[in-house]
Amino acid sequence: xxxxxxxxxxxxxxxxxxxxxxxxxxxxxxxxxxxxxxxxxxxxxxxxxxxxxxxxxxxxxxxxxxxxxxxxxxxxxxxxxxxxxxxxxxxxxxxxxxxxxxxxxxxxxxxxxxxxxxxxxxxxxxxxxxxxxxxxxxxxxxxxxxxxxxxxxxxxxxxxxxxxxxxxxxxxxxxxxxxxxxxxxxxxxxxxxxxxxxxxxxxxxxxxxxxxxxxxxxxxxxxxxxxxxxxxxxxxxxxxxxxxxxxxxxxxxxxxxxxxxxxxxxxxxxxxxxxxxxxxxxxxxxxxxxxxxxxxxxxxxxxxxxxxxxxxxxxxxxxxxxxxxxxxxxxxxxxxxxxxxxxxxxxxxxxxxxxxxxxxxxxxxxxxxxxxxxxxxxxxxxxxxxxxxxxxxxxxxxxxxxxxxxxxxxxxxxxxxxxxxxxxxxxxxxxxxxxxxxxxxxxxxxxxxxxxxxxxxxxxxxxxxxxxx
Amino acid sequence: xxxxxxxxxxxxxxxxxxxxxxxxxxxxxxxxxxxxxxxxxxxxxxxxxxxxxxxxxxxxxxxxxxxxxxxxxxxxxxxxxxxxxxxxxxxxxxxxxxxxxxxxxxxxxxxxxxxxxxxxxxxxxxxxxxxxxxxxxxxxxxxxxxxxxxxxxxxxxxxxxxxxxxxxxxxxxxxxxxxxxxxxxxxxxxxxxxxxxxxxxxxxxxxxxxxxxxxxxxxxxxxxxxxxxxxxxxxxxxxxxxxxxxxxxxxxxxxxxxxxxxxxxxxxxxxxxxxxxxxxxxxxxxxxxxxxxxxxxxxxxxxxxxxxxxxxxxxxxxxxxxxxxxxxxxxxxxxxxxxxxxxxxxxxxxxxxxxxxxxxxxxxxxxxxxxxxxxxxxxxxxxxxxxxxxxxxxxxxxxxxxxxxxxxxxxxxxxxxxxxxxxxxxxxxxxxxxxxxxxxxxxxxxxxxxxxxxxxxxxxxxxxxxxxx
Lengths: 469, 469
Prior knowledge:
Two copies of one chain form a homodimer.
Chain A: H1 7-14, E1 19-20, E2 27-35, E3 49-59, E4 65-70, H2 71-78, E5 85-95, E6 97-103, H3 117-130, H4 135-151, E7 154-160, H5 165-178, E8 181-185, E9 187-188, H6 201-215, E10 221-228, H7 236-248, E11 253-258, H8 262-271, H9 278-284, E12 292-296, H10 302-310, E13 314-317, H11 319-324, H12 332-337, E14 341-344, H13 356-373, H14 385-392, H15 394-399, E15 417-420, H16 426-432, H17 438-448, E16 454-459, E17 462-465
Parallel strand pairs in A: 2-5, 6-7, 7-8, 8-10, 9-10, 10-11, 11-12, 12-13, 13-14
Antiparallel strand pairs in A: 1-17, 2-3, 3-4, 5-15, 15-16, 16-17
Helix pairs in contact in A: 4-5, 5-6, 6-7, 13-14, 13-17, 14-17, 16-17
């Protein structure tokens, strides 16, 4: 039935090792671009970013950023010779992308045909996740998944496992080998899903606790996210255990879904009749706060946006998924007005691309379309390329309370950065030659580029090498 | 200001020749897939298509399809040896894609930031088109454009030039060298645009007539399309000359835009107060009929869909453009119900990709989103992968009244076909291994593949070679 090979071939292909090289260069040269602050919706927010057309980044021996500036300044300050410098001249170096919402066990069901959210979960997502009871399989898919993240320039992600504890272990073990800054967790789900995927309040608590105590701030650059799938699949008791964990550990995250689909919203309303709104279900259990990241939020009210902002919680806007499932158009302008911490997620496997560039492109389209549906009297802002790049770098780092570590190229930060090639495809190269401004070039990258434009990826100063390439 | 090179570099890069090889193979082997009829919206419309998992296509000496069938049958019927066969086993051979709406002079303004239709035209499209007064430049961009079509597996397109006669000449001359089946025309536009881009009813008539008499069914595989830009930029007199030309020549096409944007619709209503609707403006001038193709039609009423169907006219649905400009969601379900001839267009340069695969993917998303906005009582169909592939092959050929020549792989047709590689990227390969049905595999191609998956392109039986590759 399938001329393109069987499941068993998969394992072989994906077990190829991918690993960082051991070498940390003293200096890296190229055009350098990063944010110091939120660019807002200005078209040319010069004070929010730094751009060195010919710049050099200096790295410490342990892969942190030591200094950054124009090539001339850095060369004279550090007495660099050409043997000290890895030269990416003509290419654009930016902080590694941050994907704030994705499900690694759904890697194999990307592009599954024909349904909206609830049916899609039942028909595709749940059966796919059942396989992650097998740690060997979980490890194989983790390798593939992390390698796809890196091929696409994503150096940090907030990741859902399956309900199985081993799914998180496999992911963390593979991320540790790569020294990736990964945040993830096993799903908590004790009702309204197939029996074979349910845990209990007790096992969800003990498994999550054990994972936190083994991994969170303990091994590699791993942090843990308490992961109730969404309100409809956790009992009150389970949401209470999530609350207990969220408040028991420093820096621990909370990731879940909110207001993605109208049927889902109606269902949650029936299940939690006393909560004021969908987001308030989580708030009633003390789960809305710093380091809590809510995926989608398409149909949130202004009151809910305000609650998120007041509580320092964040939204992961997932445009490729929202379009693929026909869930609706995220209200970017209202989210900005409310000053919510706003980030982008791929939402693999309802999302259709691992690429944060593609995700920015579809975010732009959603915002364009949203403006069209808005009343003519309320002229809305487009998603500027600056805002889009901010949302996938420093903006995401801030939403994750990691701006002291990643998301920018300032001295002291971890050396997670990527190199974008403006000549990656004939069309990109053609378009780039017609650009006049940095904004134009960023916009060309976000609208036209894909994984081919990710020329190099550095993790803590070491260049990642994909052995499949 | 632009570190990625200047305009002058462009010319050099794009003048690299791309050409078909001179060799026509006797037989081509691979998985073969093509339509005999409209698959409708059925999920498994087996009687509408042919699929040979291991098939062979036999070509005549002049590049037409002589026969097609299973490899076993064809080998025994034609006594083929392995030296007669070009082997694409493991890959999927389909008819070349057909793009029914695109503007080649807008190649350089793909991904131009921040506006909806009318402002986008004024700010980006008009200035870009002004350059096509220069035939040398027009030729350079034609080469780039046709090469991008072919790299993306598009072997036939319906193409807008600029207002300048030389823009069409340059395009046709380059298409003739490649022996591509191209339909195109110079824009007619005598009002409501910058002075430097206006023609007159008289020059529009004489230039179009001269182009028709030189090219249409005369040289290569070129046909002509009378090309009034849209109702707002042609006077009544000019629309009358368009009508005269449309009815004076056999097989001549009419291409224009309709109902893309609410502001545009309101404007046309003000300009033609006596016409019943936007489409009726064209109909009042006798321009709605066989071989007339209307781009967009996002906001058409059911009466207008019916008029298109009754008159055997066609719609080019352009999803990447409709999302990029925020124009709105094409009503696919109503168009299907009305049995309108329905095709897909990239609409470069408001569209964001030359790839018909990417265009199918975004069409799927628009249809998913449209379903969401529909009332719950009216459950709507998704865009099946069969329908999407039909719309870009046989469906488009029928809309263009070219089903005797292209769009399918039946004996007697021109040998325009492409080879899709299921292993083009790690993600595509990974996903393909998990597919169970042909529908799944077509869907994976349309959602996940891009130009990298176009492994080979044959024009009249000759394999095209991109000398830039």
